[in-house]
């Protein structure tokens, strides 16, 4: 594993594609997908003023990613850290913000632990996912705490069609096996979908030898394979009573076990569950009222050599009332969010519950070639009191197929239960982390495809960090993140080509910090992604090249993580209208790399999948 960068100028490389792609076939990518995450209302993707990526079920089937974590890590300005392979502790870093500064929803229900703020992305199988919307930028003004870097919304599986069954079996390296089956059925007034999956792998040795002597990583030398076993089930559906009233609901559960290396615990049993319902009332074309209720739970029990070491039971109960009203040339949205957080553990926390209430309003308007979105929100939390956030997004279509966008927004992240109440490591006087973010971008939708370039400046204050004087967490951190990203997509002489690149400067700028001027941990300041896919009759081929530059594992920049480039190849054969065989070869060049210090990542590996999906 090398500590030197593996590429230079990835942004220029992506931008250089714009010129040759201009000569591509006249079959540009359509941006008319209906999306909801950037405004909490329905709009087409090309109307959205925020920077957004949409991943469909078709994209998932085509790209054949190894996991949801691997898929999300390929989106623009996204980085990830993983502690030893499938099912292990992981974090996502969007535009240089931390993993706890990213808000994740499953069909409108917020997920993530209230104890540590972690999100169970490794526990959501791709077979359960229908589509994903990723919004980059601050959105606390719509969603409250956590949306400093952006929002990821995952929609659970629902295949279109009057009756759409599916099944798949897969086998691959590291004794990995996967199986999934389900169906969707729809009629004039509603639909229902059921999807089940199971995956199991022997995994890799999570932590490389030498961690114990280095007093780092997993603090133990345990040179064995660390497996992962997961079973998941999704049930969702909708019913339209008449033109005014409709309802939908969902239930998702994933449970299993994961092994890892460690001196305190070496395995865990977990379950992640999401349930929710959504009632809509639409008395006219210009009025829509919705009521949403749900809960998300994360249960985790740790073991060492088979003996239980501890447990954390995290729960969020959520409710939301929202009204959308067409007024003149615009749309006014008013809403109220309610959330109760609850923690159960064998650790003696001083407090185990807290409440948050949020009032928000939004105004959207398009006049001629200019568009405006303004958001304002007030949160009231039983632990830290009130917090007000807002944002303004503006767009101008100044020429055919060209738009300039400018955004400014504030956001915050509330401290977790661990920050506030963990025995021996707690500070109940902590304030929320705060950010101010400004963005400026240019987008184009010529006949050959689409492209965008966007720059941002994010000033994050009151970061919660360990205070060496008081030996407790304190609001002493201050980070400044500046970056520019470029994205381009087209159909180029039969090839579906997509590319993105990010240059970023993410630094600690706290005046009295011993790490002032240091790079923020685990965020590569240069990254890029290139994808190309093509069909040849019943066959398809594709390749992905993911590049990540040099980074550090710690804020003191004493533990370097080398840059790397990962090559993925894939092929598919539709040998029957109902049957397809897919082959994915990951890390083709067998690169040794780490995204967390001392934790291994899979080497060259292969996965063969047989899919059954009857043609309609």
Keywords:
single chain; 616 residues; mainly beta; 22-stranded antiparallel barrel; five-stranded mixed sheet; 7 helices; 6% helix; globular
Description of the structure:
With 616 residues, the chain is mostly beta strands. Helix content is 6%, strand content 58%. The chain has a 22-stranded antiparallel β-barrel. It has a five-stranded mixed beta sheet with strand order 3-8-9-6-7.
- The parts where pLDDT drops under 50 for at least 5 residues are 1-29
Largest sheet: 22 strands, antiparallel, barrel
Rg for CA atoms: 24 Å
- The number of helical elements comes to 7
Report the β-strand fraction as a percent range.
over 45%
**Overall geometric form:** globular
Structural class estimated from helices and strands: mainly beta
How far is the N terminus from the C terminus?
49 Å
**Global mean pLDDT:** 93
- Share in helix: under 10%
| Number of E strands | 33
Give a brief description.
This protein has 616 residues and is mainly beta. It is 6% helix and 58% strand.
Sequence-ordered SSE layout with sheet pairings:
Blueprint: H1 10-16, H2 18-21, E1 34-35, E2 43-44, E3 51-56, H3 57-63, H4 68-72, E4 78-82, E5 90-94, E6 102-106, E7 109-110, E8 129-136, H5 140-143, E9 150-156, E10 163-172, E11 176-186, E12 190-204, H6 211-214, E13 226-240, E14 245-259, E15 267-284, E16 287-304, E17 307-327, E18 330-345, E19 353-367, E20 370-381, E21 385-399, E22 402-413, H7 417-421, E23 433-444, E24 449-467, E25 472-492, E26 495-508, E27 526-536, E28 539-548, E29 551-552, E30 560-561, E31 564-576, E32 579-586, E33 605-612
